[in-house]
Fold these 4 entries.
Entry 1:
Amino acid sequence: MSHQGTFVVDAVVHAYNWLPDNYRVPLAKDFAEASHRLHSRMSDDRHRLSQDDYLVDWQPGPLAELMFAESDTDFAIYHAVPLDDYYHDGLISLAKGIEFRAENPHRTALYGNVNPLDGERALADIERYGTELKVDGIKFYPVRYHSGNSLQIAFDDRKLLFPMFERALEVGIRTVAVHKAIPFGRTAQAYYRLDDIDEAAAAFPDLNFEIVHAGMAFTEETAFLLARYPNVWANLEVTSTLIVNQPRRFAEVLGQLMYWGGPDRILFATGAHFVHPQPVIEAFHEFEIPADMVEGYGFPQLTPEVKEKILGLNALRLLGLDVEELRAAQAGDRWEQRKADRLEEPWTAQAGVRRAAA
């Protein structure tokens, strides 16, 4: 629990593997370097890593130290990623997420990765995720790369995606998350739009649809989805980091989402280790919607109660978890003891990452 008394949930964390031995295609190197450039833009001077320090292979132990010893994060949702068309382990492997959760059972939820183009194998994966691994959600990407071409995966594809959603519900999975807004590499921007969400959200009212990177692009479309579909959620992974170096841009995004959809389905997330989570958390605690936007656009005020919802309570409600039960389970654990007096220095956990051979 943070020094402000707010229970903080980071709704997307990753143990990336950016090392060259993980590259499956030459474009993987370009994507890795582009990610570091984005990290540099979204980080303040104290928390910005060099390319050599950023492009490493994070392990579950160091990730836990980053989240729970170096920041005010109380709970993290690990998203595995299915990018095995670019990276041998998918970039963020499910195996690391399983280990991360096993080591921190009262502080972690897990989303399994799915590639719908795998057909029956994808359906079997979803079955295993629900019945054996007991994941809390599943993660999709809107595009796959094959033989130099980008293949779209649309959520309104009734033949390909709807059977995946049906299987998820059958095995008790109630949330699907999809990467949107930020194009991954040299691919069509149109595939990262939100036009495919409407029919899926309407057809599956009992399934929660989580738009990841909400507001980095297509802000109005995201806001209108929130307004019309009570099962659509806005996940602020990467978007939240605008608060550090582009706070007015962040105010425009958050203000629109709250104006049209209210504050109850907005999830705080950083994507760590994409950035260090602590400066984003601290900035959000202090952040206010500028007065001219409140007066001129009618944006709601960012009250302490609303901040508590976005920083953690909304995510717990999505997961079906009780904040007081979690606080009791975490009381006196190793992470609470380690940061009892103060947070550990940023990027101390870097000592445990795997680096490229010299």
Entry 2:
Amino acid sequence: MKKLLFVLLILLHSMPLSAAQGFSSLEEQMTGEEFRAAGLDKLTAQEREALNQWIRSHSLATLATPAAAATEAAAPEQATGDRRGFPDADDDEDRAPITSRIVGKFSGWDGQSVFRLENGMIWEQTDKDKFYIREVENPVAIIERGMFGIWRLHIEGHDSECRVKRIQ
């Protein structure tokens, strides 16, 4: 069971940003060997569909939902057009740290994490560092620009940080 949860966690973090209708099932995303190794071949068709539905509803594809759009529209950074972190942005203009909360449950990063913030920004981990903590709800994330245009994210109350780039 732990192995299955681990595989699901990896899949959730590695899913590309795409619309909900473009969702690929586990069967389509995994090789036959990976599918069997995770024990998913033992599930009934109904259990696999329930699992795929859960992943679909908890993936980043939910960004297109009306609730997410309302959150983004109400976010002050989005309303003012905060472009910090994008390659075409003039980051020398505003070097202030970006402080927001990570939406939902957070238990660390694994080398390919995506961070969706309450302010509407989405950042992706660019290094392969790993950091794990006991799961917390909506922790405060602080993103600061370092030397050579590198952005670093850290969680309030913890010493670890990872490099990130803004993807939305």
Entry 3:
Amino acid sequence: MNNNFRCNCPITSALDIVGDKWTLVIIKQMLLEGKKTFKDFSESDEAIASNILSSRLKMLEEFKIITKEKLTHNKKTNIYVLTEKGLGLTPTIIELTLWSDLNIREYHSSIISDSRIEMVKKNKEESIKMIVENYKQKTDFRKT
């Protein structure tokens, strides 16, 4: 793994990993949309190019933010799963959602507005906990 961090600042170092245009999108897709295969990501509305997707998935795996696994009944398809370190980005995803809802909506009026955002606004900590637990339940394919 090539650890070329720009400096020793914790914010800059975190942005060296998750601060590009696509990494948090991939994590959001996994966490909130249930995407877990290369095909899932490549067919999403965000239209990430396959070479960039491959690169980001590999980097996320190197930093142990995700793992790459195989289903017991399907050895061909890679399944990407958020690790505890990856799930630790849930509050960041939630804060970006709330910030966007508050500050970007005036410029992008078609941003999704639904009951989930309202639920998060009412009880952010409980919502984060619920999102993580739901993700863990949906990705616990190792028991099958």
Entry 4:
Amino acid sequence: MKSPDPLDPQPLNSRPTAFEQQVSQKSKRKVQARQEGDRSIWAGLGLFGMVGWSVMIPTLLGIALGIWIDKRFPSPYSWTLMLLFVGVVLGCWNAWYWIQKEQK
């Protein structure tokens, strides 16, 4: 049986390790980014605007619905504050979704 040569680039186990897979994926992303080139400032501002709108719309809808509920059905709890929180959470999730989609 032949002993493994430490200078041999081909390991005995030909299956790549997790680290090798991670390095391979990162290098592929770098090559793809170089091929696509730089994005314009307008593309960056568009993404910035999309994130802003995707957080603002659910927040404002939550506030509006909360005010409506508070005026129609008085209670010791503030529906406006609760739905504001729900709107911000939904908006942040929505913004995260758009950013993840843009990165791919």
